Amino acid sequence: MPTAVALEPGKADELWIKDARLEEISGPAFVFGVENNPRNEVNMERVSRRGVPVFVALRDSGKHFTAPAASYLVKTFSHGLHYSDIGAVPRIRTLFDAAPLAVAALWKAGTGSMMNDVRFLGGHGTPKPDGSLVFLRPANGSGKR
To answer: Which phi and psi angles does 72 have, rounded to 5°?
Structure first.
């Protein structure tokens, strides 16, 4: 698939995505423009990716937000008006916080999220009644503990 979501050219829009997973997208997963319009609001949290080399492409400026690894988690992507303080004048900013899944597993993402399930990260072991795993060996298969 070349693109998952392309917002209409020349128009400001609002997009909110949370706890999503995208795989095998050859082009930018998200494309939007008019990035200097204060009405543009694009926000995403906890979006896992595999085989998605370009997360976001900004149509007007040509700027790309790229993958830090083949499989990664976008903890936060936020584009739009941001306030540094309650009384501050807002300014248009883009925040992009992403990490390879091995590092992303260390982030605390809230109860019940996919990041609290080690099986999502490729964990192997013996299941316990509470849904957690007792690891028999590291996931890298080295056999060392």
So the answer is: -150, 165
Residue with tokens 């200097």: 36
Query: Which residues, 6 or more positions from 39, have their beta carbon under 8 angstroms from its beta carbon?
Result: 12
Q: Is 68 within 8 Å of 100 (Cβ atoms)? A: yes
Helix (H, G, I), strand (E, B) or coil at 104: helix
Greatest Cα pair distance in the chain: 55
Q: Tokens for 133?
A: 């795993």
Per-residue pLDDT of the chain in tens (145 residues, 90 and over written 9)? 789 999 988 888 899 999 999 999 999 999 999 999 999 999 999 998 889 999 999 999 999 999 888 889 999 999 999 998 988 999 999 999 998 886 555 444 444 444 445 555 555 555 555 555 454 444 444 444 4
Domain ranges of the chain: 5-106, 108-145
Distances (CA, A) of 55 to 37, 60, 63: 21, 16, 11
Indicate the DSSP class of residue 44. E
Selection from 76, 78, 75 nearest residue 114 by Cα:
75
Distance CA 115, CA 27 (A): 26
User: What is the structure's pLDDT at 125?
Assistant: 56
